[in-house]
Specification:
mainly alpha, 2 helices, 0% strand
Length: 93
């Protein structure tokens, strides 16, 4: 198998994984409130919001890593095609 299909497959896998993480994170934050009540009678709401925040905090490092993997693989793909153009134009051996 040549390098190009493998390269594009890895890039696509990283993009799909990143998209899945974004969708999962958005489903977690769906029930997050913009407004927090500090009264003691809303303690159950505060606990629920803290649970949502904790789950999002667990996912956030994976989102950052996945985003950087997509960026890195995009740079690899671009570098491959820039090199290919330079070889085709006989600017590089």
């Amino acid at each position: 198998m040549t390098l190009v299909p493998v390269m594009w497959s890895v890039w696509a896998a990283f993009v799909v994984f990143t998209a899945a993480l974004y969708i999962y994170r958005s489903s977690l934050t769906r029930d997050e409130e913009d407004q927090i009540f500090l009264d003691d009678s809303f303690a159950h709401e505060r606990v629920a919001q803290e649970a949502i925040t904790a789950r999002v905090a667990k996912v956030e490092p994976l989102v950052r890593i996945a985003r950087w993997l997509v960026v890195a693989m995009t740079v690899v793909v671009l570098a491959y095609y820039v090199r290919d153009v330079m070889v085709q134009l006989h600017l590089m051996q």
